[in-house]
From TrEMBL:
UniProt: Zn(2+) binding residues: 14, 27, 29
Listed PANTHER family: 6-CARBOXY-5,6,7,8-TETRAHYDROPTERIN SYNTHASE, PYRUVOYL TETRAHYDROBIOPTERIN SYNTHASE
Lineage: Bacteria, Pseudomonadati, Thermodesulfobacteriota, Desulfuromonadia, Geobacterales
Cofactor remark: Binds 1 zinc ion per subunit.
Organism domain of life: Bacteria
Family, per entry: Belongs to the PTPS family. QueD subfamily.
Reactions mediated catalytically: 7,8-dihydroneopterin 3'-triphosphate + H2O = 6-carboxy-5,6,7,8-tetrahydropterin + triphosphate + acetaldehyde + 2 H(+)
UniProt GO MF annotations: 6-carboxytetrahydropterin synthase activity; metal ion binding
One BP term from GO: tRNA queuosine(34) biosynthetic process
Protein name in the entry: 6-carboxy-5,6,7,8-tetrahydropterin synthase
Pfam families named in the record: PTPS
Length: 122
């Protein structure tokens, strides 16, 4: 098996809901996002999936969040936009776009600071 990871990110504002503390107030992060996929086969060029395609699909999705107020995104209207929930959202959406008979999204890591990361995997 092959395992590939790309790193990208987005900058946005949010506030946690049903949370008591500073983070219930509006604030922002420069989130870093790691996308890991697995594959069993390589193409003629020796690629499991082109990193360019992986980054393009991920960044297209992140554009929905970049420089936005995450709480107003349709997925988070009734859901606290924690790093955990953001990672689950990205996992579900990227799985729809990327999974095929060979490639499978394995996990999403969402870093809200240099020292705090939430991951989602199934
Ligand atoms: N499990 C999670 N815990 C927290 C999340 C989260 O998404 N998942 N999010 C927050 C807030 O978004 C908050 O912005 C965290 O910011 P941070 O600067 O890390 O908070 P602190 O002030 O506690 O960090 P210090 O390193 O102590 O300055 C909170 N928790
Ligand atoms: Zn926050």
């Amino acid at each position: 098996m092959y395992r590939l990871t790309i790193k990208t990110g987005f900058a946005a504002a949010h506030n946690l809901i049903n949370y008591q503390g500073d983070c219930e107030n509006l604030h922002g992060h420069n989130w870093k996002v790691e996308v890991t996929v697995t594959a069993s086969e390589l193409d003629q060029a020796g690629l499991a999936i082109d990193f360019k395609l992986l980054k393009r699909e991920t960044n297209a999705l992140l554009d929905e969040l970049d420089h936005k107020y995450v709480n107003q995104h349709h997925f988070f209207l009734d859901l606290s936009p924690s790093s955990e929930n953001i990672s689950r959202y990205l996992f579900q959406e990227l799985s729809k776009r990327l999974n095929d008979g060979n490639v499978k999204v394995e996990r999403i890591g969402v870093w809200e600071s240099d020292n705090a990361c939430a991951e989602y995997y199934e």
